[in-house]
Design brief:
The structure is a single chain. The protein has 6 helices and 5 strands. It has one domain: Rossmann fold. The longest helix has 16 residues. 37% of the residues lie in helices and 13% in strands. It is globular and about 45 Å long. By secondary structure, it is an alpha/beta fold. A 5-stranded parallel β-sheet has the order 2-1-3-4-5, sandwiched between helices.
Amino acid sequence: MTTTSRAVCLNRISMKRKIYVASSWRNKLQPRVVAALRAEGHEVYDFRNPEPGNDGFHWSAIDREWKYWNLRQYVHQIETHAVAAAGFKLDRDALNWCDTLVLVSPCGRSAHLEAGYACGQGKDVVFMLSEENFEPELMYLLGSGFVTNTTELCIALRFKRAKCTTIGYPDAA
């Protein structure tokens, strides 16, 4: 075995990761991604179930009428309410704990802020793209790569660095 091929083999050693899955409450794929990653032996933070007996942060736990807040009400509640503080702490602590973040699209602002935070800390960030509501995003180049399904994701995460673009490029015309 050559030095180069040995280095490639060592880079493919199965790694167990600490993964933060960033997505949306509306994304039906998110629970399957969490389950697939756990089945691979990874430790996974699931914002829907961040700790035993906790079903995640919900704005409705602060106020059932939260959808009708104005800007002042929003800022007051997010800065002062204990439920918001506890939810934020769980998510931020998990972001600090993880070594890898998987953004499962489609998703919204929070997931994208979480991905940006992880990129800024030098963590591996893998974007799981979906045809649903797909919109090109230039700044995804800050991340480690792209996948389109859980099989590709699990394979990509077996590498030391998740440079994992598994999507084929269209033929040049």
